[in-house]
């Protein structure tokens, strides 16, 4: 019998599946629930247990982890008679690793406290590759004692784990992260089009750029996407569109101007409007190509 806490994992998508599997590899007992049977089958094949409902997944858990697309989905799995708060034991730690609005996290923590449930907001950065390789950055909001409890779990999932402040702080930092990533991808996409139209060897150019001050994790991770025009989703445009809405709204609330971010948010929105929402966010390159006269 393991002395490690029993984990319930809710949401087994592009990020959730490899992350839950990394906990299994680290020796944790993971029971999962999601709406897609093939994802449950994948969890079982990795050594986890499939549950037939949220209530079944969480009833014996010491820690519940949620990884779902947005605030409405977090609220759907957390609240109501079939939700997490109605079915977990008092004292359970609920760790929401979704990317949602800071206010949703604050409200969830307040509602959970009334049920005797502790909460951390702990969104991540690193995309599908970071999830698979267990090298994610985890930005956490909540109480120090709860962070200390969850730290071994986070260390099985990521390389950089930081408590950023009280409830909602993790989501605020994640919003800033998504702003930086979107603007960085946009700059890389513009550089790619500029280089190709100038007749430069793109592979050579990106290699040397990556070794200088222009180098970044974004360029390193997305270089092959740009070179091969491979936009299979690691992080979908649809989700980045949602995140740009979060950061734009949060910035307006606190009075922070985001002039470049606002432009990139509109470019992300334009990609969705043109049917590219299911592609990887490196598909911002397609928007630049269209603006530059390419028949994409």
TrEMBL record:
GO terms for molecular function: 2-hydroxy-3-oxopropionate reductase activity; NAD binding; NADP binding. One of its GO terms (biological process) is glyoxylate metabolic process. Residues 6-165 form the 6-phosphogluconate dehydrogenase NADP-binding domain. The active site is at residue 174. Transmembrane segments: none annotated. SUPFAM superfamilies: 6-phosphogluconate dehydrogenase C-terminal domain-like (SSF48179), NAD(P)-binding Rossmann-fold domains (SSF51735). Residues 168-287 form the 3-hydroxyisobutyrate dehydrogenase-like NAD-binding domain. Keywords: NAD, Oxidoreductase. Pfam families: NAD_binding_11 (PF14833), NAD_binding_2 (PF03446). Belongs to the HIBADH-related family. This is 2-hydroxy-3-oxopropionate reductase. It comes from Streptomyces lacrimifluminis.
